[in-house]
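quick one, two chains, predict together pls
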Amino acid sequence: MGTLRRLRGPNNEGVLVAVILVLVVVMSLASDAFFTPNTFFGLVRSSLVPLVFALGVLMVLISGGIDVSFPAIAIFAAYTTVSWSGQASFDPTLVGAFVVAIVIGAALGFVNGAVIARFRLPTLIVTLGTQGIIRGILLAYIGSAYIASSKMPPSVAQAGDAYLLDIPGAGYLHGMMVPVVVVTVLVWWMLKYTTFGRSIYAIGGDIEAARRVGIKVVRTQIMLYSLVGGLAAFGGMISVILGKNANPQTLVGTELDIIAAVVLGGASIFGGRGSVLGTVLGVILVQLINNNLVLIGIPSTWQRAAVGILLIVGVGVQALVALRSRPQPVLLDEEVSRA
Amino acid sequence: MSTEQPTLEVRDIVKTYGGVRALGGVSLRLLPGEVHCLAGENGSGKSTLIKIISGVERPDSGDIVIGGESHPYVSPSDAIRAGVQVIYQDFSLFPNLTAAENIAMLTELADRRKLSSRRRIRATAERIVADLGLRLDLDADVEHLSVADRQLIAICRALVGEARVLIMDEPTTALTHSEVERLFGIVRRLQARGVAIVFVSHKLDEVLDISQHVTVLRNGEVVSSGEASGYTGRSIAKAMTGRDVNEDRHVDDLPESAEPLLIVDSLGRKDAFEDVSFALRKGEILGITGLLGSGRTEIAEALFGVHPADSGSVTLDGTPRRIHSISDAVEAGIGYVPEDRLTQGLFLDKSIADNMVAASLSSYRGKALLLDRGRIGRSMADLFQRLRIKAPNAKAPVRSLSGGNAQRVVIAKWLDRKPSVLMLNGPTVGVDIGSKEEIFTILREQAAAGMGIVVISDDIPELVTSCHRVLIVRAGRIVAEMTGSDIAVDAIQERMTA
């Protein structure tokens, strides 16, 4: 039992690994086309952008909030960057483009953080509001046209074809994998080994206690949302590079899928719990379903339903395990009114 | 007046919340090496004053003087850096972090560490735990620990830094007698090191035992302040409430003819308690006490069907009853006011009236299965009056009430069901002395009207004041029964721990 519990991991990471393995085995048996480098590379490629977004969502969830504005920030920052430099025929270099986008994203995140921390407003409402405003400004003032890679700065356009590994006939590993892996490791390290990271957990655990223990809650929240804004912009740039186009209408509506993946990865919607490993696994699981369900004969129209079912089952199982592991206070009134 | 330089002083602090004056010009001098007792009923302004000293709230006017420097207000980190530590009544711990991290968080932040090291955190926590001679599972998440362990963790956290002012807001509510003794040992050691200590407790004997100076607050003002030797429990209580409070034994004689109401025969539950037998007579107030974990709560919970007993029998009013669930108990006429009334006994955001009617809704069913609003309104108004609940009206949300008044709402809820036996677990935890007396007055009235009342409590003086009989539970068994004049604080304490 002890070993089993250890394998399960603090946030059910072990369970996720098992589910992913089962899916891989089932899909391999169901279709010859599944267990190939091509599928694997495709999975990695399609996971890159969701993973970056998921890391941001993870940090916000741990702090006890919820953020639905990240797709808007992502596409705003990335679109603005390539649109401006394209119009000015100026190539800021790939790194420069990332820096510009991240600064824009961080500024938008700063607005989120400032409103949330200063006025202590519910994060869902604030980010729901800002995402509408950001999207509106993007379409009204920056542009609504599709930008093809030919109109982008050359360094950004070329990055779309930079492969880390290219096996003819079997697919390729995209070069953007490198910065994503680096960022993932950085977020993991920050959450685990910095006082800032631990403060995020503390705020999510009990915000009033955090204030009392001397954590500068306002400052920490503003830093967190700025960071998450920057991270969203980073994801937006990668999405533009991989897609080889910038379209203000992309990424819209992806927020719930990302939040679902993070929650599947064991993060608590009530704050205080969640891990980078779990998030990575949650994203892989959702992508595995999205990409490959069709291989085992399930029509692609069922993808969203499958993710939905998985989410409810996954969270339900976690809740049941938690219920059984500790005696819950009995709510007397509930029992009595049933009597 | 001492000429000694105070470690911390507040002068003429005023604080209002939305037009309500919580503090009206309060001054306090905390001297090094002195234990200063801050007494006052719920709502007297103690908590507000503590929050201002610790920087959680800003005063409207007044000065906070630390180390000779005067400030209009301090921030939480200013206060912590100046050596002000608070053990909050609600502990203010992080449920999702380990015990070690909770303990070390303060010093990590105070040292302005950028990186967090598990090893350093662990070492910090181990040092203080060893220093205080405690045994705690440092790797466990706090949410999995018992209330007593959480209180100890809160104490460790406050003491891990170099505290110069230590404020303890009801630090002993969840501790057993021996743990309280150990805490007092720690307090005396800190005192010898020159730490200024503020001690807040409703247990006045405890307070007089440990403090040198007493300040009493009432309605946001200092009504009395002086050397502790000049006070008795009674005089503090009088200053707190503004009237004479009787803490002497006050028990009406039980008529000889009083028939047994509840007969419990060799009740047992695996790993909790065994062979528990007693009889409760009509009109009797029976006290059950024991240390935390002795089984006192488990016995009550078995009788109420929360965690049913697995052996033995229960007879109520001559009828044998099987109690396998809460509904069985309620049907049999047993009511239970749980230990943690805030989470287990109340709908905090609902009105007082809604809470009071919650347990007896079905009895207000009129024609066509609809609730008879008029009848509910009349009963609630009657209860509201009878229990003297201090609130503008019965529509106020329960969250706005003080501890004593919230407890009255829970009691009212059960009284409305007219149970034949009412069990109350820790009815006065976090309840101030004035309300405490009134709660027992209510219970005495109910007993006089024929109800059987069981009070489970570790506040021994209150059992001595009010109970006809006291049962002492140790390690899941009833080890002693005391009646009449045998009931005394020392004797009970001895039997609890022996």
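DSSP finds 15 helices and four strands in chain A.
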